[in-house]
Amino acid sequence: xxxxxxxxxxxxxxxxxxxxxxxxxxxxxxxxxxxxxxxxxxxxxxxxxxxxxxxxxxxxxxxxxxxxxxxxxxxxxxxxxxxxxxxxxxxxxxxxxxxxxxxxxxxxxxxxxxxxxxxxxxxxxxxxxxxxxxxxxxxxxxxxxxxxxxxxxxxxxxxxxxxxxxxxxxxxxxxxxxxxxxxxxxxxxxxxxxxxxxxxxxxxxxxxxxxxxxxxxxxxxxxxxxxxxxxxxxxxxxxxxxxxxxxxxxxxxxxxxxxxxxxxxxxxxxxxxxxxxxxxxxxxxxxxxxxxxxxxxxxxxxxxxxxxxxxxx
Length: 313
Description:
Layout: H1 13-18, H2 21-41, H3 48-73, H4 75-80, H5 82-104, H6 109-115, H7 119-131, H8 137-154, H9 159-164, H10 169-187, H11 196-221, H12 229-257, H13 259-264, H14 268-281, H15 287-303
Helix pairs in contact: 2-6, 2-12, 2-14, 3-5, 3-11, 3-12, 5-10, 5-11, 6-14, 7-10, 8-15, 11-12
């Protein structure tokens, strides 16, 4: 069986950093925050399915030459686990990012970024539903506090929106993408025992294939790309840091500390992203965003407490 672990010997700064889940997950959230801002910034020139397909196709082209020797070494395990690898690639990259980019094209970057914080609410729910996994009472409390923060943003701090259910359709698509990502994160424990670079390469290729028909439909019947220098730079960015780099860092972070604890770091995405959206897109940070942030951060603090209780029946 292929050893999935990284060397535990602290031979270099890079080796030590790759064993630090907190550093890896913080960098992941920073790159993902930039992804949301960039996707929103170019949505008029690069439609969502085009961006999703280009992201994974370029990432695949970059990783495959490096991953190919390891893919050959892992070939027997890959062949024995094709259904699970296809499922993980379809959910974790292809479906998630297509839903997310479509949502971001219909709502503000700040709204999308705050809704990212639904993930720490949904991951424990997914792991409990799928595996009856124990969660802490502090996680339960933190989930509740964070949920209130997300709802404050979703309803723009206005109970009238709640009463009329006049929600932004983009917000709902983003929320759906977060649910998909939570299921993917929970399913990562079933990741076949192959090297991380093999898993990332397969995920990227599967996502590219999943997004290809969506891109063709979009380009044929709805919208086509209008490439500019800025759009090309943005495509390169989303194809590298939020894709190639962040996918690897997130997989490693989950491997080190588990799905539920890794999911809590998603709360950093709106903090990083709001700053970038204000600076680069000219978006406005409203009072309800600040209230949501405060509640979400409170939920992060509470959920990070380690004491465990079982809620399994």
